[in-house]
Amino acid sequence: MHLSLTTVRRAVTVVADVADLDHPAAFAGVVLPGLARLIGCNVATTTEIDPPKRIRYMDYPEGALSPASYQAFSDHLHEHPLIRHYETTRDGAALRMSDVVSRAEFRRLDIYQHAYRPRPTEYLLAVQLPGPGPGTRAFALNRARRDFTETERDLLNLVRGPLADGLRRAGARQHAHRALTSSPEQRLAALTEREIQVLELVAAGRTNVAIAHTLDVSPRTVAKHLERIYRKLGVGNRAAAVAPPPLAHEPELRIVSAAPMQWPAVAHSAPEVLPRAFREVRPAGTTSRRFRSAVAKPTLASKALH
After folding, report:
1. Which of 156, 50, 180 is nearest to 172 (CA)?
2. How far is it, in rounded angstroms, from Cα 44 to Cα 28?
3. Residues facing 136 on adjacent strands
């Protein structure tokens, strides 16, 4: 694969921007414009499908897709060729729509007629990001006039791994921040400043060797710090030392998708505070007044495929 220097710089920029994130909620807002600049498209989207019943999305440029477009997408999701392929193969690598079905076959589908044709989208390039947790997180680039090239597909695959790593690190940093800030004051009061530094690095997923390198000490010294931390906190391992106390209640999740399906296990991380740019959709036939109000004034958050 031959890439121009400009393309390489854009790819590095996208990956570097993600690497600096401290919270997964900001991930889509950074990745969407980055991928749009890197590969080029009319509309970029990210979609999260949480089993069994929730669909959330974000588009770039913001507001490019109407709520009706994504409502149609939700209603006909079961026939989406790329999602059916991902479900069957469990392989979330980048694919063009033309890699799975012909253009004629795609245009005969209801999901094309009701969701893609009005945009208009004739060509699609999508990728899933691997990671912990249930649900599907996918990014898609939409074009109206020309198909994506094999090089563009391979380029999206090239950044897939680093982007997934960045998402996991952002989740780890969020977890570390929550663990430390939500701990009772007396729980950390007994720790020295150095022990708190070690605990923060443990919460970020660092190994003893990595912590030793960061703090310019030996791994044995790090191990001794951890022994004292465990003793002071009354725990027996790293996971318990950084685990946040349980929440009094979990935030309520609205049901927004109909037929339960088995989705591939890919990255999903639902933020406690959802970004305003995200939208949720619910299939036709829903009678929830609460949901209708949310659609009329879309201010909910989430992450998106298309």
Report:
1. 180
2. 10
3. 49
Q: What is the pLDDT of residues 195-239, one digit of tens each?
A: 888 988 888 878 899 899 999 999 999 999 999 988 888 788 887
Evaluate if residue 290 carries a pLDDT over 80. no
Residue-by-residue DSSP string for 108-173: HSHHIIIIITTTT--EEEEEE---SSSSEEEEEEEESSSPPPHHHHHHHHHHHHHHHHHHHHHHHH
Contact by Cβ (8 Å): 75, 284? yes
d(CA 183, CA 167): 24
The pLDDT of residue 284 is 52
Note whether 48 and 33 are within 8 A (CB): no
What count of Cα atoms within 13 Å lies in the side-chain half-sphere of residue 99?
Answer: 18
DSSP for residue 304: B
DSSP string across 238-250: HHHHHPPPPPSSP
**How far is the C-alpha of 293 from the C-alpha of 306, rounded, in Å?**
24
| 3-class secondary structure, 216 | coil
Identify the H or E element spanning 214: helix 208-215
Helix or strand run (H / E) with residue 45: strand 43-50
pTM for this prediction? 0.64
DSSP 164-194: HHHHHHHHHHHHHHHHHHSS-HHHHHTS-HH
Total residue length of the chain: 306
Least confident of 164-168, 188-192, 229-233: 188-192
Q: Which of 5, 6, 31 is nearest to 18 (CA)?
A: 31
Q: Bridge partners of 139?
A: 46, 127
Q: What are the tokens at 270?
A: 């639902």
